[in-house]
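Batch job 17 of 40 flagged for manual review because the log was empty.
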Amino acid sequence: MRSGQTVQAFIGLGSNLGNGQQLLLSAWRRFAVEGRVVPFRLSSLYVTEAVGMDSRSLFTNAVGLVETVLEPTELLQLLLQVETEHGRLRDANAVGYQDRFLDLDLLYFGGTVWNSPELVLPHPHIASRLFVLAPLVEISPWLQDPLTGLTVEEMYQQLLARIEQGEILPQPISRIERTE
């Protein structure tokens, strides 16, 4: 597809089991040893309640910007491998989202629009989740969504307005300090 060209990709990192802060930072450091993925910038860490699932555990979330020579599906495979290395077990029989030690989502891959059974780009839930948009705005507010043409800052403001107007449920979110 791109024959070795470097692309910027945004990855959502999340955890609601174990020490979320430690797991997210460990996964981020793991990219640095990969060679084909260069970690460029990691947002602050945020604590949120679960969105789209029932869970008693709070999530720790962040968004990272990487540069890579991998194709989108190759990067996805690496993300799944890093999840497994950090204790993620997927129950094929479970319905809906599950609690997890580590969740890595490929949010954006350059300006690529992709739709296959294993990968959809941009990630289909970006515009409805503060735990994605708040850290995205922090590290790249002018990033333009290739489907809507909106910047992530505009999507963030639209989501805040929808929450304020009661169109969707509140999504409490708090930035936390890293203790590396």
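Reviewer: the log was empty due to a logging misconfiguration, but the result itself is present. The chain has one domain: 7-176. Unflagging and moving on to job 18.
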